[in-house]
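Q: I have two molecules that I believe assemble together. Could you output structure tokens for the complex as a whole instead of separate predictions?
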Amino acid sequence: MDPTSADRIIGKQIFRYPTVSSTNDIARQLAACQADEGTVVVAAEQTLGRGSRGRAWISPAGVNLLLSVILRPPVERGRISELAFVAAVSVARFLNGDTGLAARVKWPNDVRVGGRKIAGILIEAPVCLKKEIPTAVVGIGVNINWTDLPPEIAETATSVLIETGRTLDLESALTGLLDSLDAVYRTYRVDGFEAVLADWRLLDCTTGEEVTVLLDGETVRGVAESVASDGSLVVRQADGSLRKLTAAGQTE
Amino acid sequence: MSGIEIDLQQVKELVKLVEKYGLAELAIEEGGVSIVVKGIVAPVPSSEPPPTVTAHAAVPAAQEEQEEESAEVEEQGDVVTIEAPMVGVFYRSSSPDTPSFVEVGDQVEVGQTVGLIEAMKVFSEIPSEVAGVVVEMPGQNGKLAHQGDPLVRIRVSEQ
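A: Yes, here they are, computed for all two components at once.
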């Protein structure tokens, strides 16, 4: 969709930076200053890129997509986590449509190609005391033209260039990703979470696989049986019992 | 006065008890006879030092009582409980390697982050609704919290 269209939500305004601490930091500041929903922050380089629970998000300058989007979905606070599915479907669809890869999603928001991580999503939705509509900052890193992955992630991560042998123009990739995000987010707003979850299930590589979730001071191990209608993961444990997981903790 | 026998020695002992412990009143009942001995001093529990009583009796009472009252309000100030706004794993710090957002005894401001909840990899920082002092942290780090579960209790500071 044309970024100037009246229905367009994401990417009408894009702030670009050569280097930032983290695009989420900038987007959160903009959100606090009442930036419009759909505002995007893009950086060529992050000095303090982060993943969940303080883990670092590593990316050299100028080869990958690093961005954050401000969203204000009109849902109650308890449903803000549905955005994890919106973001994962958007990234996987962009990769599958624009690069021909067969990207899959792993519960709740991992995006993988051939079992390797190709993108990371960090959603931060600080509770605001006065606002009824929650604000979320969706941080996304997608490995595009990166080939010299450091040894600690060389076996578990990948990039578009590694997988396809083709270099992508980063500006075109950004356009493609924002188009995908806008389309999936509008589906979420118009048709609801069920529609997004249905798309997520088509891309799911979790169900049927062994999963390990560090949670509640304990480790839940088992086979992912299904993803419930509220997005929680149903795991069949070794003793045959079913366990429904809402929080992902550390999922492997 | 027939029919009623009062043991004077017993009464004397009761009076001694009332004086010794500064009791306001002591009553005993035996065989249909009840004896009530009333003290003439303000009641002071024997186990506690008496300064409160002397303060009450002291001359510049008006001012002192006022100060005492305001001190009492501060000690018994409203305690506000910050509850989980949604289901998820509660964390006391932003990462395993960083210190807790707050500890018991910390002064917090309105809007200051006191905890973090993760649900399906979406992280929500929890702000304090009030300014005050953290008095209790029922929310356990890394444990699942349900919507409405108490996470942090804060005694509101008087402004």
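A: One point stands out. Chain B is about 25% helix and 30% strand.
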